[in-house]
Amino acid sequence: MSSKNVYFIKAVTNLHVGSGDVTYGVVDNMVQRDCVTNYPIINSSSLKGALRAFFECNAKDNESDKNNVPKIFGKDSNSPSQDNTQNGKGKMAFFDAKILFRPVRSNKRPYALVTCPQALSDFFEYLEISGIKEDEKEGLKQLKEKKLENKCNFEPKENEKFEEISKYEDITNLFKSEEITNLCNYLNLNDEKIIICSNEEFSNLNLPVIARNQLENGESKNLWYEEVVPRKSIFYFMTNCEEDGLSNTFNEAIKEKLVQIGGNATIGYGFCDIGIIKSKEGNNE
Amino acid sequence: MSKKQVESYIPEALNIIKKCNKVGDKGLWVEIKGDNDNTLKVIRKEVNGYLASYGPAIIQSGLIPAVVFYQGKDEKKIVNDLILEVIGKKEDEYNKDLLEYACNNEKEAKEEIMDAIIALKLALRTFKIGEK
């Protein structure tokens, strides 16, 4: 029996999950992007690696936790000390983490979270695959059937402007909608201000670029630019677990702890809060 | 960024760099003394730096503020001239400089300029870049 779960990742600090040096873009170090939509993502291999490192670090003093690491993530080929009779494959499969919300600055409040119909539709797809309960499905169905573009869950202030979203320079284009409030309640985003912009606007939103410098005796030796996914962004990912018990172990281990994902951990990048969104067991049989 | 567009700009960028005859403090090339006391032409190191920071400047400040910053009469202007040539608007009498072109065609200019910057950055790697 296997179970699929959907989890959210809330970036507590800026996140840089790099795409490597082979992308010769306008910025030196770019973040990973979806090959279809070009929205920022966290590749499943990067996510699994980060989670494995988190589990290995937390399981240092506990023998039972130590045994769970190869069960969940598979045998570590670099570690000869592990039991060779054990199957190398992990019992949990991790899928790419896709972006659901990202913050944009406002001139009247600190920020608002922005998403688009395509990102929401991808999210609903994961929820459906994971097998959400029927009553919840009904609520989401209503959301899916509505035209969500240009909606928000708050009353925009007079002359409010959202940086980088040209369409809302005139906020009369933005309508308050109950459906978005329902979505926020579903995702426990009660205090967040949410805007749904068009797919085009969402893909045109630039990620912040940070200049980094290597100094030697106060002299610049190497200046480079790196793209980051701003803190407060929210991703989601799905897992498929072949053993029920392991899924619970996984959920317990990540509960109320910060997991570091991506590069630059020592300068505080990539600390994320991970939590489960929805699950239903045995739905893929 | 359009990969196809960048690819099509690279041969153009290589040609433009080769043919560019601007040498000196405000030019693309700088002359240095070679091992046998001969004179060699190498790319001015600063131009490489200007190109590297042009894209982030557009992302952080917007297209027109970034183009204005590089448009002045100082040593940075060479970058705008190269970009205008790569995107093929140099011969157009209505677009005498990159700023004018960017102001009149903001939407398509942003994509074109970003792609031209990438092409120029890559093309420059094939030339010898001078030391400061």
Question: What does this protein look like?
Answer:
The complex is a heterodimer of chains A (285) and B (132). Helices cover 27% and strands 26% of the residues of chain A. Chain A is built from 7 helices and 13 strands. Mean pLDDT of chain A is 85; it is low at 280-285. Chain A is α+β, with helices and mostly antiparallel strands and 285 residues long. In chain A, strands 1, 2, 3, 4, 5, 6, 7, 8, 11, 12 and 13 form an 11-stranded mixed sheet that branches. The longest helix of chain A has 15 residues, at 44-58. Chain A starts with a strand and ends with a strand. Chain B has 6 helices and 2 strands, in the order αββααααα. Chain B has a two-stranded antiparallel ribbon. In chain B, strand 1 and strand 2 form a beta hairpin. Chain B starts with a helix and ends in an 8-residue tail after the last helix. At the A-B interface, strand 10 of A face helix 2 and helix 6 of B.
Quick structural summary:
With 285 residues, chain A is of the alpha+beta class.
Features:
heterodimer; A: 285 residues; alpha+beta; two-stranded antiparallel ribbon; 26% strand; B: 132 residues; mainly alpha
Tell me the Rg of chain A in angstroms.
20 Å
Shape assignment of chain A: globular
Separation of the first and last Cα atoms of chain A: 8 Å
The helix count of chain A comes to 7
**Structure class of chain B:** mainly alpha
Order of helices and strands of chain B: HEEHHHHH
What portion of residues of chain B is helical?
Answer: 55-70%
**How many helical stretches of chain B?**
6
Strand content of chain A: 25-35%
Strand adjacency order, main sheet of chain B:
1-2
Report Rg of chain B.
15 Å
User: Biggest interface and which pair forms it?
Assistant: A-B, 13 and 15 residues
SSE arrangement of chain A, N to C: EEHHEEEHHEEHEHEEEHEE
Largest sheet of chain B: 2 strands, antiparallel
Which regions of chain B have little confidence, pLDDT < 50, spanning 5+ residues?
none
Oligomer: heterodimer
Strand percentage of chain B: 5-15%
The chain-level mean pLDDT of chain B equals 86
Through-space gap between termini of chain B: 31 Å
